[in-house]
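As a warm-up, study this chain.
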Amino acid sequence: MNREIEAAATYGVDFFSILWYYGNNAGGTDKAQAAYLNRGLDLFMKSSKAHLMKFMIEVTNHPPFAIITDEDWERSMEIWISAMKHPSYLRVDGRAVIKIHAGYNFFYDLNSDTGKCRQLLLRMREMAKEAGVGDLLIVAGLGGREAARGEGHFMVHIGEVDGTMQYMDVPGRPQKKTSYPYENLVRLASETRRSREQDVLPSVPYLPVGWDPRPWRDKRPGFSAPRKAEWRKALAGMKNDLLQSENLGFPNRDNSVTKAFTIYAWNEFGEGGFLAPTRGEKYMKLKQLKKIFR
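Now compare it with the structure written out below.
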């Protein structure tokens, strides 16, 4: 963890969005796996290098890691809010940032009850203030080509979701032995973030750094890793869109945005999305990131 933080911070990565899983409602193997997955959060907070960058919690609530009952939520929120007291916890406009990974799962797991959703988020805000953390900035994940438009969208209707944040998306293609071009991933990401201009809520966009889940025996298609020129072009495209947009980034209290994006991902080696240095690529991706966003 010390080495990962040092590598990320040296080349301009500002924060890790660390996935956190509630395993109590999962089956035996998945429940055990959640405990190992959550060591990432613990190791970051204990690292002697943690002061070099920030981190935030991304509540990974897709099946089988649903958070359903009030007791589930209370137990989970205590853990998240405790982590927010760490001096390296990410704050934007003075507010501690937390993301609910799958907005729709959050909504449906609570029986599509916007009142219940609002009640839970208000309770989280209340607990944060009681703990001395202060105000929260709550973002929820959008999936695929989903859009948060109009007052009727559940995220807007809940009223306590400040913004959205997309994790990753993959073009619909049949799996084949060879990889599809990396450009296909970038084109979809670019089209998606431009469509966010029409959303009611500000949105933090994603940039894919690769996708090939065959090591996990996943049935979805694989895409080639970017070459240096392709990666530079993808980064430059993101930078241009951020500079031109008034809706891409974390929302501020005055209705402006703090420009930000995430990269999928730091170390999803099993899915083929990784910014972390490797023996083959060494620091190529990180060096280009620093050059474009210096």
